[in-house]
TolC family protein
Amino acid sequence: MRLFASGRAALPFLALAMAAPLAAEPGLPDEAAVAGALIDHPAVAAARERLAASRAGADARAVGPHEVTVSGSYNRRTIDREGTFDEFDTQLTRAIRLPGKARLDREIGVYAVDAAENMAEDVRHQAALLLASYWWDWLGAAAEAEVDRQAVTNYEQALAAVTRRVELGDAPQLEADQARAALGAARIRAEQSTGRADLAQARLRAQFPSLPLPVDAPAIPPPAMREAELAGYRDQIIANSHEIAVAEAEARRAAAYADRLRLDRVADPSVGIRLFSERGGAEQGAGLVFSMPLGGRHRSALADEAGSSASAALAEERLARFAVEETASADLAEARFRLSAWERARESLAAQMEVLVKLRRGNELGEIGLADMLLGERLVHDAFNAEVVARTDAQRAITKLRIDAHELWLRD
C-alpha cells in the first residue's frame, strides 16, 4: 500500500476509507474471546464473589439471628444439721421474631441480592467499556503508525529522486536539504506513533491477558450506522441500565430496613423451659421462662436513622436515572458528531489528494518548486492521519453506544 501515490492506481488507503461498511462486527475482537476475557477479569471475579456473599447474607436474614441458648448451673450446698446436697438447673431459651419482622428480613435479603446481581452486571459492563477503549487505542495508534511509516517511505523516495537531480546538476543542494529535513520529521512521527501503538497493546494485554490478540492490529473499517439505529440505542441504554436497577433495589432495601427497625422498637421476646433439682433431688421441677428487653431511645434513634437513609436512597435512585439519561444522550450525541467529523475528514483527504496530484505534476514540469510539493505531501500526510483519528473516534463512539445499550458483548 502506498500513501500519497500519484495516478489513477493511487490511494488504496483512501479507497478503504471510502468503502462500504463491512459485515459482522468488523474491526472488533471475537465475541466469544471477549466473553472469556471479561469473565476472567479480576473486577468481574470480585463482583461474582460479592454476589455469592449477598446470597449467603440473604439466607442468614431469612433464617433469622435468633438461636437456642442453653444455660445451666451446678451447686453443692451444705445445710446445718441436714447435710450436703447437690443442686442444678438447666434452661433452654430462644428469642422469637414478632409478626412482620421475618417477612421484612426476607424482603431485605431479596433486594440485597437483586442489587448485588445488578452490580455484578454493571462491573462486567465497565470491564467491557475498558476493553473497548484499550482496543480502539491500539487499533487507532497502529493505523496512525502505518500511515507514518508509509510517509517515511515516500519521503525517502523523494529524497533519492532529488539527490539524483542534484548529482546531475538539475536541482540545487537546497532542495536535497529540504527533502532530507522533511524525511527526518516524518521519521520522528513514525517512531512516536509506533511507540503509542506498542504502549496501547501492552496496556490491553496487561488488563485482559486471556484475550488473544493478532500479531498485527486489524484494520479499522469505515464506520456506518443509520440515524434510526442511533436513536433506538438511546432508549435501550435507559431500559437496560444496571445502574438504575441497582439504585431501585437499594431504595427498596433501605425502605424495608427502615420498616424493620421501626418494628424493632418493640424487642423480640425470649421464651424457654427451665429444669431444676434441689436438695439432692428432694425437690424437682420444670417451668417456663420469659424475658423481653424494654426498648428505649436507642432503638428509636436507629429507626429514625434508617428512615432518613431510606429517603436518601430514593433521592439517589432519581440521581441514577438522571446519570443514565445523561449517558444515553451523550453517547448518542457523540456518535452523531464523530460520524459527521469522519465524513468531513474523508472529504478533506480527497481534496488534499487532488491538490497533491497537481503539485507533483507541476514539480515534474518544473513549474512548482520542491518546497511547495513537500508542503503538499505534509498536508496530505496530516489529512491521512486526521482521517484515521476521526475513523477511530467514530468507531469508538459507536462501540460505546452499543455496549451501553447491551447490544454488544452484554446481550445475555
Notes: The mean pLDDT is 86.
